Amino acid sequence: MASETDPEIDIEYGLDDRPPWPRSLLLALQHVAVMIVPATAVAYIVGGAVGLGDATAYIVQMVLLFSGLATVVQAYTVGSVGAKLPVVMGTSFTFVGAASTVGVNYGLGAVFGAILVTGWLVEGLIGWQFERIKPYFPPLVTGLVVVIIGLYLVPSAMNDAAGGAGSAHYGAPYNLALAALVLLVAVVLNLFTRGITRLLSTLVAIAVGYVAAFALTVTGVAPGLLTFDAVAAQPWLAIPRVGRFGFSFHPVPIVTFAFLFLVSAMETVGDMSSVTAAEGRTPTDEEFRGGLFTDGLMSSVGGIFGAFPVTSFSQNAGIINFTGVMSRHVVGVAGVILAVLGLSPKIGALVTTIPSAVFGGAVLLMAGMVAASGARLITLDVTLDRRNMVVLAVSLGLGLGVATTPEALGGLPRAARTFLTEPVIVTALTALVLNTLVPGEDSPLFDAE
Hints:
It is a single chain. The chain has a domain at 21-152 and 224-356. Helices cover 68% and strands 1% of the residues. It has helices spanning 21-50, 56-76, 96-106, 108-128, 130-133, 139-161, 173-192, 196-199, 201-218, 229-233, 251-276, 285-305, 314-323, 328-343, 345-351, 356-381, 386-404, 414-420, 423-437; strands at residues 89-91, 310-312. It starts with 20 loop residues before the first helix and ends in a 12-residue tail after the last helix.
């Protein structure tokens, strides 16, 4: 599956390179700034759905803590767990709908019971047997998963750029201006500067947007855009507690989360492929196996303490392709920062004061970079003949169809809607089935004609 390194992406720091500490810290903060809001948003959404109230802050804390620990494990490994790749981990939106529904119908104990059982079982089994199932995940399939992950992030990024879905000031000109400012600064610095300025282009852009948001707040143009009330209410230190929300085990939640972990595994395979695409290759079997082990095991361990499942974050893969900084040591520092934030709710709350519009401008760029890296993976390793073009067309067509018009499936049973309105699921399974059953050199069942 590996290919020769492609010279089009300039790698500033390779996989095992160690940038100087000040630079490493800033590069790590760039990763944290891009992923912290969506990672914690899952906790806020589910907490609101099940009526947790102030207890939501504890789940946010656990999400940050175990995102950080899982990121460190991915970068450095513990035994056979970990990929030794710059993979930033966080809580995936894949689990939001199921966690909310199960939490309302069965209680949060059933959510964490299902995570505890299925995380290590499903992804551990996939990682253990990955050498056997690898032929079913050629670059055509993994590249399509990366593309749809990036495209799927775009509407969410646009919502953030407009001020956040449900915001009373959604679409306000100052929100759009902030997002445009962040996007413009990041692009200009990346394309027209060199050295540390280019490497930190995303972080600098977010900082500029934050300062602009502060100015809009204090001048009264956008009152309430920046608020620190939540910061003052949080303690400096909080210790994780085993079984904070209890555990219960029910067949329906367990089956539901088992399937979602299968999807999470597909996302992780896609994100890891996106990361190594910067080097013009796909991950090795050992890298895939270690990455999947981390996904499942750390999700189950986190569930013991009240964290939602962790998985690879696509926007951070976009940063790697955007900046050319592939050092796993930089990502390891980012993991330590996340873990520290998880132990200090006050500091974590301060970081999450980044306005949605500022964050949206950065993620819009990162989402596009993820999709572009998926396309690059396909063009580097896949022959775009008639057979593969049809697989691409059908998979992306169906995935984007359910992403943009989910209401078209409104007449189906709820269980079917839960399954078929997930664009990553639809794209991945369509590509997997077509690539497997249609004769061609990429099919694991047939020889090329």
